[in-house]
Design a protein that fits this description.
3 strands; single chain; Arc Repressor Mutant, subunit A
Length: about 120
């Protein structure tokens, strides 16, 4: 029997840290430190997500099927402590659903002129 596809909307809205990690992994497979560094850059934050928090978050994301742990890509320095992650097809579907949800929010904000510091009309 084929498993029933999961509905990405059941995980929405995403916590910002989960969304940030998934956005990093859309760019390609990555190890934890790279995810930490790039998620901070994408979000414009410098210290909000800490390493311990990231690894707990990645464990939850693994359990939900958003990401998977993979072997180190060819050419990466061997270090058994370093774990690499990849976004799953379900993770991509969740990012897509969250993007659509956020686009709707942005549409409302534009309609009320809240993005350019304009007064609502």
């Amino acid at each position: 029997m084929r498993p029933t596809p999961r509905d990405p909307s059941t995980l929405l809205p995403l916590k910002h840290d989960v969304f940030d990690v998934l956005l990093v992994l859309l760019e390609g497979d990555a190890h934890g430190y790279r995810i930490l560094k790039e998620s901070r850059q994408h979000a414009g934050r410098t210290g909000e997500l800490q390493a311990g928090t990231l690894y707990r978050l990645l464990r939850q994301m693994l359990d939900r099927g958003l990401v998977e742990e993979i072997d180190a890509p060819h050419g990466e320095a061997a270090d058994e402590r370093r774990r690499f992650y990849r976004i799953t097809p379900f993770g991509r579907a969740v990012v897509r659903a969250e993007g659509k949800r956020l686009a709707g929010v942005m549409g409302i904000m534009r309609r009320h002129r809240l993005l350019r510091d304009e007064e609502p009309g």
